[in-house]
Amino acid sequence: MNLRFLHDPETGLPHICRHGVEEYEVEEVLLNAEEDFASARGSRIIAGQTDAGRYLRVIFVPDKTSDSGLVVTAYQLKGNDLAAFRRRRKRKNRS
Questions:
Q1: Predicted pLDDT of residue 95
Q2: Are 69 and 86 in contact (CB under 8 A)?
Q3: What is the C-alpha separation between 14 and 36, in angstroms, rounded?
């Protein structure tokens, strides 16, 4: 997967670093997405679990070609967001 990351102009680092997320974790979630919703301006909201067990939400703008795109941000799901994700996943697995 060919990913580009939005960089923070102040630090020069990928924006995801501000949220304590590593680039490889984003790739793990994108490859094993459990939720994938359309969002504004052609972006996607993708959620899933990393190999280490962390739950992340990734804001991703896919390129016209497959397997590439821009990662705008990613952050760990916590609290009510994590509980809602788990409920949706549980309902989905019942079907």
A1: 64
A2: no
A3: 22
